[in-house]
Amino acid sequence: MIRVGELAPVVLAVSDEDEVAAGIVRRQADEVIAFAGAALRRLELTGRGADPDVVLGGSVLRAVSPAVVEAIARGIGQVAPDARVVVAPSEPIVGAALLGLDAIGADPTAKARARAELDATVAELSTAVVERLR
User: Fold this and answer.
1) Under a CB-based contact definition with an 8 Å cutoff, are residues 105 and 71 in contact?
2) Residues 46-66: pLDDT tens digits?
3) Calpha distance 83→79 (Å, rounded)
4) Do residues 38 and 90 lie in contact, with contact meaning Cβ atoms separated by under 8 Å?
5) pLDDT at 1 over 80
6) What's the average model confidence in pLDDT over 78-107?
7) Can you point out the beta strands (E) in 9-130?
8) Alpha-carbon span 73 to 29, nearest angstrom
């Protein structure tokens, strides 16, 4: 069984005191900046007055330290000065479900319930995975 997915939490946990782990996290931040910068340029959202949101999502980007988020924001700010970098409050699956609910015209109560239940389920699953790995 390939267990590469187990490395990310370990790397993030030790990146403050381990130079190799810190280098991996810096490289990830540089890649995010490059990807977001390319997308912003392609979408012509780099000029003054364009105020795009750059949303960091997924379990790894949601787990990086505030210092890494700030570094990403600084890098993106060099490409798009008015861009806002935000960390998604939920896993991408929650956003996908909310988009589906939007498509069928669900009311805000249904969306709030779906977000709460999916967030709780994802947290539960994450805890179970961590326990299993111990």
Assistant:
1) no
2) 988 889 999 998 888 888 999
3) 9
4) no
5) no
6) 91
7) 53-56, 84-87
8) 10
